[in-house]
Structure formats: structure tokens, C-alpha cells
Fold this protein.
Amino acid sequence: MILLIQNIPEGKVFTYGRIAKLAGNPNGARQVSWLLHSSTKKYNLPWHRVINSQGKIALKSQDGQDYQKILLEKEGVEISPTNKIDLKKYLWGIESLENLKV
């Protein structure tokens, strides 16, 4: 999962569920959330590029949502006033782990 998250390109987003599915655990979206919470600093993960399956910023705190929005907008990702991201435009289109840079 860490390698997958590290490879999300700038200006793209990926969902918790898609990360879990590609990592072999289709029901592991909460594990992805836990991994981001516990390992972002250690592995320098682009946590801000991970969003929920509805295309929304999923952080609970307003400060966290605002910070994630700022980071994504700096990368050119457009975000609606309701913190929604157009998945057709910004979702990273990886379909298998074979395409990852090691």
C-alpha cells in the first residue's frame, strides 16, 4: 500500500477504496486511512491525494479539510465549494500494481 500511495502523481487523486482493492483487500479502506494516519511522516506519503469514493475530502476537522484543499489546489486540482473533486478528471487511472515505480 505504501508504494501505491507514494506513486499517486501530482495533480491526481485516488480513493481509499481503490488503494485497498489494488493492494488486495477490497474491504480495507479503513486500513488505508489508518496507514495514512500512522505512516505519512515516516514514508513521506502524499496523504492529501487520497479522498473518499464520492470524490470528497474526508477529513473531519475543518482545518484539515482546508489544508488538504490548499495542497490539492497547488497541484492544479479543482475543488468545488462542497470539497468535491471531479473523479472523471482527476482520478489516477492506474489499474494494476505492475505499473508502479519502485
